[in-house]
Amino acid sequence: MRNWLASEARRAQRATRSGQGRRLLAADGTLLHAWHFPPHDGGRDDLAIVVVHGFTQSSRSPQMQRIGWWLSGHAGVVLLDLRGHGRSGGHSTLGWREVHDVDAAVDWAHSLGYARVATVGFSLGSAVVVRHAALHRATRAVVAVSVPGEWHYRGTAAMRTLHRLILTRLGRGLLRLTRRTRVSPAGWAEPQPIDPRAAAAELDVPLLVVHGDRDDYFPLHHAWHVHSAATDATLWLERGFGHAEAGATEDLMVRIGAWVSEQVRADGSGAEGSGADGSGADTTSRA
């Protein structure tokens, strides 16, 4: 297994090196970094997937590079570093102003010649892509992996620890030193941004919610709430899956890539059926 993962990481890194890095400017002036690499294995030339990592991750992590490689079998991929993460500037606002980051990445994908763009987000990134799709209406499909249904959730030990880190000066310093993640000390302006459940209710494109039954951060009811709020939604409950990028497998990402491709195919309507089932998942669809 270790040798296989190392081989996958090397293959993903080679694909990334063959791609194109770019500095992007968000609407509020934050300088961002993103990386594009084209589809392989006969992927669609007119479809791009913007991939948005979770908190403390970045496009440079081996797992994110593997995820990008797996998805690029179905589409071109843009890996984005959210503000305060990786090679991007600024400070993380924990899901508030990050919608500008996703919008900049979507615009770049269009400038590269992709007619259709979908988004895939993990944890914090999943909340951001759902909000972005509701507010900016610039994507054809959205995938939310390990999505929180509400802000400020502290119902698990992992989330209580996370709040202690982001809400204290010492904790933010530790995140900067140990995870290279810069968190803004300023709070959100009023009114606070709509949460992912409320944003899901505003979507006009297909939504896929993917959640594991071993998620230590957000229990299953978060996935149910986001899924239930959306008009056109599919829910995959993955048995044995943990949280976000760390638990993502090649099989899961290939199935997600196939679902995205299915949603934006043929007539370009952005909604073609209820999605694809896959082994190891309990699937619920609503239309």
TrEMBL record:
Domain AB hydrolase-1: 48-145
PANTHER family given in the database record: ALPHA/BETA HYDROLASE DOMAIN-CONTAINING PROTEIN
Pfam families membership: Abhydrolase_1
The protein's name: Alpha/beta hydrolase family protein
Signal peptide (UniProt feature, chain positions): none
Highest taxon of the lineage: Bacteria
Keywords, alphabetical: Hydrolase
